[in-house]
Amino acid sequence: MTDELLFVALGGAGEIGMNMSLYCCNGKWLAVDCGLTFADDTLPGIDLLFPDPTFIEERRKDLVGLVLTHAHEDHLGAVAHLWTRLNCPVYATPFTMYLLKRKLSEAGLLDRVPLHEIEVGGSVDIDEFGVNYIQVTHSIPEAHSLAIETPHGTVVHSGDWKLDPNPLVGPTTDTAKLKAWGDKGVRALICDSTNALSPGRSQSESEVLKSLTELIGELKGRVVVTTFASNIARIGSVAEAAAANGRSLVVSGRSLHRNIEAAKACGYLQDMPAHLDENEAGYLPGENTVILCTGCQGEPRGAMSRIAMHEHRHIHLKASDTVIFSSKIIPGNEKMIGLVQNRLVYDGINVITEKDRFVHVSGHPARDELKEYYSLVQPQVAVPVHGEARHLSRHSDLAKELGIVEAPVIENGDVLRLAPGPVEVVDHIATGRLALDGGQVSATDSKTLQSRKRMMFNGIAFVVVVLDAELNSIMEPRVTIRGVLDHADSLAEADLHDKSVEAAELGLDNVKPDRFDDDGAIFDAVSQSVRRVLKKASNGRRPAVEVEVVRLNKIA
Fold it and tell me: What global pTM score does this model have?
């Protein structure tokens, strides 16, 4: 991998979230973004997932830096968890750096990570790469596209963006700078595909402000608005809409407080009306308040979930109150969001989503915006990323319609040669996901998670075998079964218990006398025998079987 320009996605190609990209030029590697995604119910006990950095970890002596495009969790949320495996300098603009430092401090890494703050719209040379920041509009301050200069040509890495004429927070997309780079010549555009299926243009944040103001003016009782904590523009819009209707703003959720603090520290939200803390909500008449809270994706620990489940210490809703979900559903979160919304409806709460009223606008470009961006950048090659397969495919078709012949659809792990010569996938590397499990990062196929999934979906049986000093079984095995049969069917459950005990005894009988001092041999024989009985009784499921061998001669 020398004398050429390569692109590899470790995350974010074929999915929305968990973005992490690699560029290789003349043997040196540059990483762009290091984000996370949310886990679904196929991984019990897991909330967050990260890209597996093993490939670049093995080459970290040649990893010259990690550049962050903006501060959304799906672009920087994994840095504090994975940096020790990367061990490289990190580059970010002030707002992104502010939030990153807080995360690194919480992880005990702040003094270890070489941090380089880059001015908004600035540039930096990182070994073989000249990285130029281009301001773009998104739902968070200081989002940037990157023009990455290399000896093999310039690559524009779009990051997340849209063309909003009035974004409310931060400037509009710097189209003049994009055009300037396009006029210089751009080899490849690595581009956001989130809304490649959507015709026209994304609507403006200023229009959401107008709509929210009108909607809140129509409502009686307490109004709760839940949105992404990182959507700084939306936070400002909700605050202004509340003030316009003579309502006080109450903020609930630690991440909201943190992001408001970060925004103000970096010069944003300076005109935002003062807000109250959640512990003051109960002292105000409902018709005089708007509560802004976290949990728009149904996260169990988010403020919205705790309110819906009547577990919030300070905020309690009643029938005729209203909850506005000022957000979109991230794929995979449908069940969690549905649970929260249904719970609210059961309580007589009025629930309003983007399907009911205009309460949310995307931070990503629709098809007409993509066309305009392409007209500015004029790339020779288009590489769709940041989307599921259907988004990437439609984006590729659009690029070809615009006259770009080479627009490959790739997936995580594809090693794509951008230059010199024809654009093609020259290799494929192993990629995967890591899980945050109780504060520890582990592989999603670890034995611990495999066992947990098996227990969750198939049930489990515990078998206790007691042996005396002469290695004789002195009592029948004790068997406890959970999650295999319906407890309401007591006869069937009792029958299964008896058969499992017999199976355990049969397993013991199959252990050769000279192997009775080997706990592993007993475990294998007993578990296999019991597992056959359970599999038959549960119509093919494979419950986990755990065998504990108690030796009386070893008890002191």
Answer: 0.84
